[in-house]
Write a structure and sequence with these properties.
The chain is an all-alpha fold and 164 residues long. Helices cover 97% and strands 0% of the residues.
């Protein structure tokens, strides 16, 4: 207060009032500047927070991308497994087909064998038939001879027996 009194004495009350007003104005300006600085600091803090949030979002995105990549890897592995299973199934089917082919081949072989056996049996039957036919033919010949002998007069037979 003493300092103000000295100002008043030196410059007068109006001048002192002007000085005080300027001082208050400078103080308000400093306060406004501090407020602007605090606002800038809050803005910088908000910006840092936004940057941290963007970083967290990028991190979440990287994590999601890694998860998608792991899922793609798992899907490729499942697909490879399905393909291996399809290949095993195709191999089993080929094996079943080979087995069916072997069965058909064995059946064909047995059928050929049965056919050959039927053919041999038919040949034996024809041979037996020819043999029976020869026997019947011989029997007919003997029958003819007996008939001829029976029809031939005894006198002729006597002559014939002398010729022999």
């Amino acid at each position: 207060m003493k300092e103000i009194d000295r100002y008043e004495e030196k410059w007068g009350p109006r001048e002192c009032e002007k000085i005080e007003m300027r001082e208050r104005e400078r103080e308000r300006e400093r306060e406004r500047e501090r407020e602007r600085e605090r606002e800038r600091e809050r803005e910088r803090e908000r910006e840092r927070e936004r940057e941290r949030e963007r970083e967290r979002e990028r991190e979440r995105e990287r994590e999601r991308e890694k998860e998608r990549e792991r899922e793609r890897v798992r899907e490729r592995e499942r697909e490879r497994e399905r393909e291996r299973e399809r290949e095993r199934e195709r191999e089993r089917e080929r094996e079943r087909e080979r087995e069916r082919e072997r069965v058909r081949e064995r059946e064909s072989e047995r059928e050929r064998e049965r056919e050959s056996e039927r053919e041999r049996e038919s040949e034996r039957e024809r041979e037996r038939e020819r043999e029976r036919e020869r026997k019947r033919e011989k029997e007919r010949e003997r029958e003819k001879e007996r008939d001829a002998v029976q029809r031939t007069p005894v006198s002729h037979l006597i002559i014939l027996s002398r010729l022999v």
